[in-house]
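Sorry to interrupt, but I need a hand with the structure work. Leave the record below and I will have a look:
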Amino acid sequence: MQTLRQAIENISQCATPSTKFARPIFRINDNTLYAYNGTLGASTHFVAQFPTDDIAVDAEALTRIWQDGSKAVIDDRQLVVKTRRTTYRLPLQDADVFECPELVAGGEKITTAQRDAILLASKFSSQNAIHPWAAGVTLHEGRAIATNNLTVISVECATHLEGTLPFWAVNALRTSGEPPAIRIDSRGVSFTYDDSTIIQSAPLAATMPAKLFEMIGTINEGDTDVAPLVEAQEDAFRINGRRVTLDPAARRIIVVSEQGTKSETEVDLGDTDFEPAMLQEPILKLILEHATHLSFSEAPAKLLFSSNKAPQFRGVAACMV
């Protein structure tokens, strides 16, 4: 079983300030740590290191001071923590007013490959989207699908789960160790880990439209290897440009900055006479970081991209015109 320090770290995202709670609190009862910041709720067990009274304290303060080896007692409505040479005193909060929705464990246990697919798709989602379903990853028919309004990506993810994982839930998905069981239903989204940790978020009020699922089904794999572009991008992007044009026929990467500075980098994209594709530099960098192949077959309106290595995916980026 984990220590209290490990428990705090495992649910730390559930104790960050939000629009609802500027100062979230931890509740500790029967060697279980609870947290809720208005968006994410969590609970997790830890080894007996703590007074068993039902108490609540400022989450940020306890996160900062508690270390493995710390000792704690309750004295005069304060939590007194002794850590090496320092004694800390944290005022106790009213545990009875601690808010947290009912946390529901269980779900479908996912694999490391499925977790990686979700995390990869999340890189193409938006945290400031107009549509709630664009601020997360949607699981649909064995795929993890995400969009940032400029790209749409579909990553192979062999799961029976259906529904959208909001970005705050995806951000709480651990990137190492054993993946959790995931539950998606009308009560929300929850992750249940083997160490007893449950992290849960509220459900989204809207779902991804079917037209995006249909679009994903029509995307073909790329036929142009990105390796030459990856090799040339350091020189090409040196001027911090805004617009990047990939011209396969002229075998050029053309970058133009906000100030009008321009660079042209030679690159061999093979024998192709397709139209050029113009994208925002951050979007192209994201694509080149993860894709293995491009396709100019729908340029100049769209650039298709894909990966032929695990996790395999297909995507499309809207070009600047």
Summary: The chain has a mean pLDDT of 91. The first strand starts at residue 25 and ends at 29. The longest helix spans residues 112-122. DSSP finds seven helices and 23 strands in the chain.
